[in-house]
Amino acid sequence: MTAQFDVAVIGLGAMGSAALAFLAARGVKAIGIDSYFPAHAMSSSHGDSRLIRLGYFEDPSYVPLLQRAYRNWRALEARLRADILTITGVLQIGSPQSKIVSGTRASCRLHGLAHEELDAAETARRFPAFQLDDDEVAIFDPQGGYLRPEAAVMGYIKLAAESGATIHFGERVAAIDPDDAGVTIVSTSGRYHAKKVVIATGAWIAELVPLLKSHATPIRQVVAWYQPKDSFATEPQRMPCFLRDEGPDGSYFGFPAIGIDGVKVGRHAHFREPVDPNEPNPPVNDKDTALLDGFISRRLPAAAGRRVQATTCRYTMLPSEDFLLDLMPGQPNIVVASPCSGHGFKFTSVVGEILSDLALDGGTDLPIAAFSFEALDRFAPL
């Protein structure tokens, strides 16, 4: 006999686990299914820290979602009695006309967000870990900081279970077949029927949503940790999290010494190398470490001590580098979520709410019009 559910969530990484928790909290009969186990090494939801910032350089339209996300993160912490969001401030660094600086400035001004614009000398005085060129500036977002991804994912799974959700790990979904009454889900362990399904499978999204095969590209991402030369300058009280615009060399991100491994840095999208999501992440190589060693030596000399470790994970990139949060075209019982492109984790707490709305109500009052299949089609026709 096929088990019956109101909603099934396929993929229990950041977005799927949050969606399942929001759905279960609304009293529906929900099931979550994942091929692996929480925050596994082939996911995009591990690695001890993720940036969160309110002055959003990518586009000011993200700011209202971030404001809701902050509220939801604090609500999650209250329910779990755990620390997930830590405020350190975020420095967004570059030339005054760079994308990161100009975009952050525009978001802050449009939404009336607290911020300070610092020249190189003032940045060095207040935050001595950072090395700016004389013509560079830094915008300080005092509400920025970092999230603990493993704690967030495990927390949402815990809340989903406590609210009555059925959760299956180590079970791969092979097919999703819509019908007049909903969707049949065929997995390696059985069959389920649900009125609605949320597909949030990260790097594997195109396997269940073939429409995205030429659009959602998993790529390799590398980050490294360094024991600082100056542990005083790199403590969170004196070294905010940061983004740095290096012009043609791309953009870099990093965190103060928040754990035993020290300061963490990476380059956004790294070398943009596609990966097979079903294969282990390629190992870190000399080219990877040379890139990150060179950056930290040049831009964060106080942090440029011994490299303790480096590791790979993956981003799933869409052509616009925006999100996709929408009902499947012609299939209103299927909700599709690919809300990352390397900058999505901070939105997990609001994306879970959005996916719950889409599954149960067919829409949401939250501003997601820019994240539709129609919007994606403008950048790369489906």
Automatic annotation (TrEMBL):
SUPFAM superfamilies per record: FAD-linked reductases, C-terminal domain, FAD/NAD(P)-binding domain
Keyword Oxidoreductase found: yes
One Pfam family, short name: DAO
Sample GO molecular function, one term: sarcosine oxidase activity
This protein's UniProt keywords: FAD, Flavoprotein, Oxidoreductase
Transmembrane segments: none
Domain of life of the organism encoding this protein: Bacteria
Keyword set includes Flavoprotein: yes
Occurrences of domain FAD dependent oxidoreductase (ranges): 6-358
InterPro entries found in the cross-reference section: FAD-dep_OxRdtase, FAD/NAD-bd_sf, MTOX
Coiled coil: none
Alphabetized NCBIfam families for the sequence: PRK11259.1
Protein name: Sarcosine oxidase
Organism: Rhizobium sullae (Rhizobium hedysari)
Lineage summary: Bacteria, Pseudomonadati, Pseudomonadota, Alphaproteobacteria, Hyphomicrobiales
